[in-house]
Design goal:
Blueprint (H helix, E strand, L loop, with lengths): L1 H10 L2 E2 L21 H9 L5 E6 L2 H7 L1 E2 L2 E2 L3 E2 L4 H6 L2 H14 L5 E6 L1 H5 L4 H12 L3 E5 L8 H19 L9 E7 L5 H11 L3 E7 L4 H7 L4 E4 L6 H11 L3 E3 L5 H15 L2 H26 L3 E6 L4 H10 L3 E7 L4 H10 L4 E4 L3 H11 L3 E4 L1 H9 L4 E3 L9 H16 L8
Parallel strand pairs: 2-5, 2-6, 6-7, 8-9, 8-10, 10-11, 12-13, 12-15, 13-14, 15-16
Antiparallel strand pairs: 1-14, 3-4
Helix pairs in contact: 2-8, 5-7, 8-11, 12-13, 13-18, 14-15
């Protein structure tokens, strides 16, 4: 009976047409692939340069939050213990903030996180922050992200955006607009992608001031208020910030994507239309495509028609589904850990007949692998070794090798797909 009830609950999350039920709590008892809101906030805030990050929690939370996208970031902890849980640890947090400011005087700002333990006992980190601000003499931004504060890491993305917004509201004034300048919002410089996007935009005469948060610090945040346009590449981790900057600093934003040739070309055309420089873009598009054409065709011939499963985080599944489809893959299953209706609608537009699955778990992944028998599995590191146990080639995303953005990135992606699918090891199975 319990299994029957579970299957009935999951039925709406796995659909062959339309979009699945989403943005809901995980069904109790299911080993979900989701992370907590605290980790979602770390995903957004960890790359901010010249900043101190203090976690008001047991040391485990700091250990969990130090590694983001396979990169270690410095993170400090108040190391709450049993005595702190019983009697409170306001004074301990206050001392930690003051000590951290002395140890890292070169850092421009301090982020203070509250997680499950400190939030459960009612620790008021905002009160502590206000108390020590004058002593520290630098911006201190509270980030309240207990793991139970949302359904998934996606809620942490929103809280992190609000933390950045609070900093901008208090410390960053509107500067005079620089012509032909943009900020990129929701870009995290995975495998050097920010550099590739900047390089492409510079070719059409556009300067990137700040990339939130892949290339970001306090100075760049201040300069970002002078941008003429914001480029929103990830709605889950950037929409609130883009909307705020539009209202506060009168900076409009457009949705763009630099994954896949079609998305990249369409995004360049959107940007060029805004700045009235269409004549430059066509030439750049032609030049960039010519550079990769011969190699790209070679790889696409080898991966064309291969069956694929795509199980990603959430907010970019529409763009990525389009990019992998453009590479020639036949996408049979598309899923997300924390996608919302907008994400699934974008993905469904690209994949009208694929099976969609929300908040997938290991048991369901195993069943899909047995039934579909894909040629390649594209997903996060949690699914990596499971796929290999079933003898299925796996491409990890976000990637750990080379940038996948723009023209050269699309070539890199196709090359990695070719190498994974046609690796000699699979002949032994």
């Amino acid at each position: 009976m319990a299994i029957k009830a579970f299957l009935e609950q999951r039925q709406g999350h796995i659909v062959q047409s339309g979009i699945p039920q989403c943005s809901r709590p995980t069904i109790p008892g299911v080993m979900s692939q989701r992370a907590c809101t605290y980790y979602g906030a770390r995903w957004v805030l960890a790359p901010v340069r010249n900043s101190t990050h203090i976690v008001h929690a047991p040391a485990d939370c700091a250990y969990y939050g130090q590694n983001v996208r396979k990169k270690n970031y410095l993170i400090l902890s108040t190391d709450m213990n049993e005595k702190d849980v019983i009697f409170g640890a306001h004074e301990k947090l206050e001392r930690c903030i003051e000590e951290a400011a002395k140890i890292f005087p070169e850092h421009s700002m301090i982020f203070v996180y509250s997680t499950c333990t400190s939030s459960q006992i009612g620790e008021e980190i905002k009160w502590v922050v206000e108390k020590v601000k004058e002593k520290v003499q630098k911006p201190i931004i509270p980030v309240e992200v207990p793991g139970f504060g949302g359904f998934s890491q996606s809620d942490g993305h929103h809280i992190a955006q609000k933390a950045i917004i609070s900093y901008l509201s208090e410390y960053c004034k509107k500067e005079s607009t620089q012509p032909f300048s943009v900020n990129i919002i929701g870009e995290y410089n995975v495998a050097g992608e920010t550099r590739v996007i900047k390089k492409l935009l510079e070719k059409i005469g556009i300067e990137v001031i700040c990339s939130y948060t892949g290339d970001c610090d306090a100075d760049l945040m201040q300069k970002s208020t002078s941008a003429a346009l914001n480029l929103l590449v990830c709605k889950s981790s950037g929409l609130l910030l883009a909307q705020f900057m539009r209202e506060r600093y009168s900076i409009p934003f457009v949705d763009v994507s630099f994954y896949g040739l079609s998305n990249t070309v369409n995004s360049l055309k959107k940007i060029s239309k805004f700045f009235d420089i269409e004549h430059k873009v066509e030439m750049v598009i032609s030049e960039e495509y010519e550079k990769i054409r011969d190699k790209l065709e070679k790889y696409k011939k080898k991966i064309f028609g291969k069956k694929a499963i795509i199980l990603l985080g959430g907010s970019r599944i529409g763009f990525m589904a389009g990019a992998f489809k453009e590479a020639g893959l036949e996408i049979c299953v598309c899923g997300s850990q924390f996608g919302c209706n907008i994400d699934y609608e974008a993905a469904r537009f690209e994949l009208p007949s694929a099976l969609f699955i929300d908040d997938f778990n290991c048991a369901e992944i195993e069943e899909i692998l047995l039934r579909i028998e894909p040629d390649v599995f594209i997903g996060g590191t949690r699914e990596w070794y499971l796929a290999h146990k079933f003898g299925v080639p796996f491409l990890v995303f976000p990637q750990e090798t080379k940038p996948y953005a723009c023209f050269e990135g699309f070539l890199n992606m196709c090359e990695d797909l070719f190498k994974e699918i046609h690796a000699p090891v699979w002949r032994l199975i």
